[in-house]
TrEMBL record:
Residues 33-284 form the G-protein coupled receptors family 1 profile domain. It is a multi-pass membrane protein. The keyword Cell membrane applies. It holds the Pfam family 7tm_1. It is found in: Cell membrane. One of its GO terms (cellular component) is plasma membrane. Belongs to the G-protein coupled receptor 1 family. This is G-protein coupled receptor 55. One of its GO terms (biological process) is phospholipase C-activating G protein-coupled receptor signaling pathway. The gene is GPR55. It comes from Orycteropus afer afer. PANTHER family: G-PROTEIN COUPLED RECEPTOR, G-PROTEIN COUPLED RECEPTOR 55. Keywords: Cell membrane, G-protein coupled receptor, Glycoprotein, Membrane, Receptor, Transducer, Transmembrane, Transmembrane helix.
Length: 315
């Protein structure tokens, strides 16, 4: 088949079935679990326990981004298969989806940095960290992702027919737009999260021979490793698919079969990356469980320094 006549009808038809099978249970579970997570962490904040305030703020922020991603799934299932009623409505749906994705990435990145600093420099961090500063950090993340969403406004050429999440303009795939988004939106956060996670695990392993909290440290090591694995599995295939599609749209890949395979891979990786909004829930509930264990024990939360990013906060 000529590259000029390359059809993606079969790919889109198959993805329509797969998206239905993945997105429906993801939407139901993600909606329920993230709402419960927000409620749970909000209740902890209302009780004014300073030991857990910073972690709760970060976790609520991450849960809100995950909830936005969940709410965007019905739009992502329907809009690619119908003509968009208004270009502004299409832009809103695409902004909602990508803001939730990159908001989650940046929030996880800041949590990893904060956790590493709490493990490496606990005394220093305790004097320079407060719920107000964590809240301002989360606000900065929202400003960052909203500002970074400006390329979405030019995703489509409104002079012709288009469908949401499909047939993006050539300008969207230009090197000037693509590489900054790829580098600052994924590769840099991945490097930071990987560095902080490996350093945190190394420090905890080094403390295993002389600490009385080795059981908590061991659990924390597993949690950090699992969080890193979930992040890589959720977001690495998507950004690899973006890169391959960039190669297609800029004429580096011309063979029709390769284009079809890349289109399928990109849509499939986007589909399964949405499961991340459910996987994050395991992190939320492990943290809440740790809160309860520390409260019942009536002792300072040393495990919280390691598990997610909590330590005693001083105004």
């Amino acid at each position: 088949m000529s590259p000029l006549n390359c059809s993606f009808h079969d790919v889109d038809k198959l993805m329509k079935v797969l998206q239905l099978a993945v997105h429906v249970p993801t939407f139901i579970l993600g909606l329920i679990l993230n709402l419960l997570a927000i409620r749970g962490f909000s209740m902890v904040l209302k009780k004014r326990w300073p030991d857990y305030a910073a972690t709760c703020i970060y976790m609520i922020n991450l849960a809100i981004f995950d909830l936005l991603q969940v709410l965007s799934l019905p739009l992502k299932m329907v809009l690619p298969h119908v003509q968009a009623p208004l270009s502004a409505f299409c832009t809103m749906a695409e902004c909602l989806y990508f803001i939730s994705m990159y908001g989650s990435i940046f929030t996880i990145c800041f949590i990893s940095v904060d956790r590493f600093l709490a493990i490496q420099y606990p005394l220093l961090v305790s004097h320079h960290r407060s719920p107000r500063k964590i809240f301002m950090t989360c606000c900065a993340i929202w400003v960052l992702v909203w500002a970074g969403s400006t390329p979405v406004y030019n995703f489509h050429d409104t002079s012709g027919e288009y469908k949401c999440f499909h047939n993006m303009s050539n300008g969207t795939w230009s090197a000037e737009v693509f590489f900054p988004c790829e580098v600052f939106g994924f590769l840099l956060p991945l490097a930071i999260i990987g560095f902080c996670s490996f350093k945190s695990i190394r420090i905890l392993l080094g403390r295993g021979h002389y600490t009385q909290d080795w059981v908590q440290h061991k659990a924390s090591i597993c949690t950090i490793a699992a969080s890193l694995a979930v992040f890589v599995v959720s977001f690495l295939p998507v950004h690899l698919g973006f890169f391959l599609q960039f190669m297609v749209r800029n004429g580096f890949i011309l063979e029709c079969g390769a284009k079809q395979n890349i289109s399928f891979f990109l849509q499939l990786s986007l589909c399964f990356s949405n499961i991340n909004c459910c996987l994050d829930v395991f992190c939320y509930y492990f943290v809440i469980k740790e809160f309860r264990m520390d409260i019942k024990a009536h002792r300072p939360s040393r495990a919280q320094l390691v598990l997610q990013d909590t330590m005693t906060t001083r105004e």
